[in-house]
């Protein structure tokens, strides 16, 4: 029984997605559980053919291996401020694209690009159409899978500027800094410390 269980967990742990990531992975963009992402510099880059965008603009996006290949890729456009975990805009693929597919992350049609087979490639180019309303500066957040256990998460493109945003920092009331959630543990710790101090004094 234990053997079956460990075999099962081994299979789940090394589970990758040769046919592309499932929608459950849209937020964390991690290709399965088990092996940890690589922490060193990624041998992959994400570049665009421009540094700024306006509503409805089409931007050319290229993912390239600076050395070696990749067999898995997952790309989304993410706002730099505000709702930073949500994929924005719409992707399009080149005619006859045989490596990539479009995914509907966050219920938005074609809001992500991913591989659809595990063929090794060195580069791919595809297109991103900006939303019809300003979403501020964005960047392309990517995952690259080199081999099953060797992958990089959170590979960032340069920033794509929204010229309608003049501030260089996020507004203080945005939820990017997790101000509400990150303060909660501090408050809890203070309460626990206060209770502890009272108890030890009694
Ligand atoms: C970037 O590529 C897109 C799609 O090919 C094109 O429409 C757009 O004009 C290009 N932008 C620049 C600044 O070259
Ligand atoms: C990009 O990949 C294609 C094959 O898909 C290859 O022919 C081409 O040489 C590659 N370009 C670069 C710059 O690596």
From TrEMBL:
Keywords carried by this UniProt record: Signal
All residue ranges annotated as the Reelin domain in the record: 7-183
Location of the region described as Disordered in the Swiss-Prot/TrEMBL record: 163-182
Domain of life per record: Eukaryota
Matches recorded under PROSITE patterns: REELIN
InterPro entries: Ferric-chelate_Red/DefProt, Reeler_dom, Reeler_sf
Signal peptide: 1-16
One Gene Ontology term, aspect cellular component: membrane
Protein name as catalogued: Reelin domain-containing protein
Organism lineage: Eukaryota, Metazoa, Spiralia, Lophotrochozoa, Mollusca
